[in-house]
Amino acid sequence: MDILIKNEAGTAPVATAQSDDANINANDLHVTNLDPTGLIILNSDYLVGLDDGTGMVGRTCIEKNGNTATFRK
């Protein structure tokens, strides 16, 4: 599924990515093809949801390696 990552306030898109997780509501959402990678900072908070803007949930980036990351509710 295509993922949209917004700043913590939800006022601006920060990055896009894809996820093979079965459910957007997973506690730990794993994403790949993160673009751009430089705007995602470990231990920072974001709103993460589907690329159409639905399902946006506050999450913290708990892991980042290259263009992959994990966001926790």
Task: Name some characteristics of this structure.
globular; 73 residues; 6-stranded antiparallel barrel; Thrombin, subunit H; 0% helix; single chain; mainly beta
Describe the structure.
- This protein is mainly beta and 73 residues long.
- The chain has one domain (2-72): Beta Barrel (Thrombin, subunit H), CATH 2.40.10.
- It is 0% helix and 53% strand.
- It is built from no helices and six strands.
- The chain has strands spanning 2-6, 13-18, 28-35, 45-50, 57-65, 68-72.
- Strands 1-2-3-6-5-4 form a six-stranded antiparallel barrel.
- The model has no long low-confidence stretch (mean pLDDT 96).
Quick rundown:
It contains no helices and six strands. The protein is mainly beta.
Q: The biggest beta sheet, please?
A: 6 strands, antiparallel, barrel
Helix tally equals 0
Percent of sequence in beta strands = over 45%
* Arrangement of strands in the largest sheet: 1-2-3-6-5-4
Q: Quick one: CATH class?
A: Mainly Beta
- Class from helix and strand fractions: mainly beta
CATH fold descriptor:
Thrombin, subunit H
Cα Rg: 10 Å
- State the low-pLDDT regions, or none: none
- Provide the succession of SSEs: EEEEEE
User: Would you count the extended β strands for me?
Assistant: 6
Helix content range: under 10%
First-residue to last-residue Cα separation: 18 Å
How many distinct domains?
A: 1
Shape: globular
Specify the CATH architecture: Beta Barrel
- Average the pLDDT over all residues and give the rounded result: 96
